[in-house]
Amino acid sequence: MRIRRLPMIRISRVAADAVDLRAIVPAGTSIAKNVFLGVVPVSALVFAVAYLVSRTVWVAAAGAAAMAIASSISNVRFFRRVARRRQPSDVQTVETIDVEAFHVVDIEPLGSHGPALVFFAEDGKALLLIGQWLLDQPSFPSRSFQVRRWADTGKPIRIEVRGPEIDPESSAVQLPPSPRIGDIELFDATPSTLERDLQRAFG
Asked: Cis bond leading into 115, ω under 30°?
């Protein structure tokens, strides 16, 4: 007998896999490569511009050195964060949100931050996905998918589509202006009360 899957939204945490890590560190990327191909040329450009403006070597050198130090520190912190996510003992690096939706709505985003999609489950839960990153997801939106994001920052990694692509219903409901809204938000909502639910959750 075939088991019917009810529309739902389920959240869990897992370790990052190779595909997750490639999303932030493409193959062939290293801290040394970033420094020599990024930090060094930019610092040289800063030195040249600063010298043309000030006509003083030490001022130009100080500006270039400050830029090189700041960029190097940023690179070190980034690769340390990646190294922590690669640790096999960290089994909660990635938060996964499994979605089986019965209704999908395309709402009005704020400015150029769209698209903004809302997926509804039968238990009164809804998932809001916002941003240009959605345009890079193949065969999306879909009623069935898994969205993966970093557990520590909440930033999206990718979407694994598990069903056919669909056309969402267009809606005149507008996303409320709020600094509390991230790229991925779970909140209580129904299609008939969506505008009020958005205001209550984020307004």
From this structure: yes
Contact 184, 156 (CB under 8 A): yes
Q: Are 165 and 176 in contact (CB under 8 A)?
A: no
pTM, whole model, 2 decimals? 0.68
Residue type, 118: V
Q: Which of 199, 72, 73 lies closest to 128 in space, CA to CA?
A: 199
What pLDDT digit, counting tens, does each position of 71-104 carry? 766 656 665 666 655 555 556 688 999 999 999 9
Q: Which residue shows structure tokens 């006509």?
A: 55
Q: Could you tell me the residue ranges of all domains in the chain?
A: 8-16+92-202, 24-86
d(CA 95, CA 41): 37
